[in-house]
Each structure stands twice: as C-alpha cells, then as structure tokens.
Design a protein that fits this description.
The chain is an alpha/beta fold. The protein contains 8 helices and 9 strands. Helix 4 links the parallel strand 4 and strand 5.
Length: about 230
C-alpha cells in the first residue's frame, strides 16, 4: 500500500487484539480508497486456510513490465541499467527472495521466462515482502532474445555459473546484467554462449553450489561493490 495501492480489499479480524501495524493499515487503506471489512476468525481462517495474522489483503493482478520500461526508468534516473535475468527458476520462494534482494539493492529490473519458470504468483508476492510493488519484472517468451536486446543497448551480460572468472576480479561497474540459472541445471548452454562472459563465486568448502537466491544475492552485491569503488 505504501507504493500507492496494490489491493482490492483488506479484511481484518474483528474484536481481536491488534498492534500499531493494523492502525497503519487502516490509515493507508483510507488514504488510497481501499475498502476494509471486519471479519470474524472463522471467515479469515477459511479464506487463508488458517495461515494469517488477523489481516488479509486481496491483491490486484500483478502487472508485468517490458524491457523498454526498464530502459526508460534508467534514463529517468540517469543511471546505467542494472538487470537480473533468471533462467529457469521454478521455485517461487527463490523468485520471491531474489526480487526482495533486487529491490533492496536497487536493481532496475528482473527478466523471467514464460517457459520452465515460475510466474509472479501469491507465494512469490508473500516471500518478496512488498518488493513486487517496486521491482519491474519482465516476462518474456525467449530469454535469449532478451539477452540480445540487452546487448544491443550496450549492457554487458554475464552468466553466473561454474567454471567462470572470479566475480570479485571482474570490473562490473556500468551497465550490467547478471544471468542466474536454476539450481542443478545452471544457465542453459545457448544463453551462456550469448553472454559476454561467465562469472563464478569463489567456493572454499566441500559443497560446490549455492541456493539460487543466495547466489543471486552475492552476485548482485558484488556488482554494487564495483559501483561503490568506481
């Protein structure tokens, strides 16, 4: 709601003990004209299958952006594009976590595929903790076409994958896109070949892989470190 809306209706437990956050929800709903209804616990339990904290928001449909929207956003900010491309992320918890990291780090946009990739669904929105209201998410038919379009806009595209250069030894300042693959599969072969380079995270333990959302977070902040040292 702080982003300007996002909900069709808010249901709140009637007669319950509420903290200050519920008062803030009421104020935000009033400000943006979002209807609020008081419901008994049985009604909330049924709507959320028992998984709620006394307050349920009925969200509007998620609106995807386009690559052009990302470029326009960067032009308005007078900043070089920083984009994360997700290749085959199927776990909604991973996608939600990645979107949350992207919002915190100021990533301008995230590209996901329509095939073999989870969409922005209710689980993603919940895990993202509000990030889906701020991060521009582009859903494309072909990830490789998106990579080509990024390169046409002078964005350097790097795959985060095994057997690449140490990410901390690469200059990632400027316009950059990081491609993150699915756990176990990594970045697909053709996508990897289209990228300008392959970067790896240093591994010193016995397990030679990270959760996809963790790998994305480390890569994103390695890029921010380069920008801060520029």
């Amino acid at each position: 709601m702080r982003s300007g809306g996002g909900f069709n209706r808010i249901d709140i437990l009637s007669g319950g003990a509420h903290d200050n956050r519920v008062g803030e929800i009421f104020d935000l709903a009033r400000r943006y004209g979002i209807p609020v209804k008081l419901k008994d616990r049985a009604a909330l339990d049924k709507a959320a299958e028992g998984n709620h904290q006394g307050c349920i928001g009925y969200a509007t449909d998620f609106e995807y952006s386009s690559l052009d929207d990302i470029f326009a956003h960067c032009n308005n900010l007078n900043e070089p594009p920083f984009v994360v491309v997700l290749d085959g992320i199927e776990d909604p918890h991973n996608l939600g976590s990645i979107l949350r990291t992207c919002e915190c780090a100021g990533v301008h946009g995230v590209v996901i595929g329509k095939n073999r990739q989870v969409p922005v669904n209710d689980t993603v929105v919940k895990v993202a903790e509000g990030a889906t209201e701020y991060v521009k998410v582009v859903r494309v038919v072909n990830i490789n076409d998106a990579v080509r379009k990024l390169k046409e806009q002078n964005v350097w595209v790097y795959a985060l994958d095994m057997d690449g250069k140490d990410i901390y030894k690469e200059n990632l300042s400027g316009a950059v896109a990081l491609v993150v693959g699915a756990e176990g599969k990594g970045v697909s072969k053709l996508t990897r070949e289209l990228c300008d380079g392959v970067l790896s995270l240093p591994m010193r333990g016995h397990i030679q892989s990270l959760n996809a959302s963790v790998a994305a977070a480390v890569g994103i902040y390695a890029k921010l470190q380069c920008d801060s040292e520029k």
